Inverse folding.
């Protein structure tokens, strides 16, 4: 696995952008953080963080549950629902709204549609029914574009 870091664009729906804009108006100024982008040389720098812990300090992995648990409870998510569950929710929301595999792949940043299908193929259960309906609609009729009523004896 490559350790290279990369940037990608994530589409932000209007409803999310509005909520984020509102949230950012309440965020205090920058804080000092340890930037370990280069693990051989950690540097201290100022960062304008989008999210912080309840104490206003940066959220760190070892104490993230102290921030996540009350938020998860407040919005009514199940006890065992982890933060990564939001990504799965996003993917399944797109799928059940009719998004293609390619659309979901791009939204999630998967390198190939195969990765998306391997993870979410079960979320497209009506795809086979839809396929059968399309073929039945095209071939199951007595008259199709390929045959006219006059050519049948």
């Amino acid at each position: 696995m490559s350790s290279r870091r990369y940037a990608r664009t994530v589409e932000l729906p209007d409803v999310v952008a509005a909520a984020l804009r509102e949230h950012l108006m309440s965020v205090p100024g920058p804080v000092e953080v340890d930037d370990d982008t280069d693990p051989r040389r950690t540097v201290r720098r100022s960062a304008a963080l989008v999210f912080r812990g309840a104490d206003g300090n940066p959220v760190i992995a070892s104490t993230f549950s102290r921030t996540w648990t009350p938020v998860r409870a407040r919005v009514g998510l199940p006890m065992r629902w982890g933060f990564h569950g939001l990504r799965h929710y996003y993917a399944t929301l797109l799928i059940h709204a009719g998004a293609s595999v390619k659309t979901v792949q791009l939204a999630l940043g998967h390198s190939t549609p195969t990765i998306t299908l391997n993870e979410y193929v079960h979320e497209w259960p009506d795809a086979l029914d839809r396929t059968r309906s399309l073929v039945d609609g095209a071939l199951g009729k007595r008259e199709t574009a390929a045959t006219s009523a006059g050519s049948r004896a």
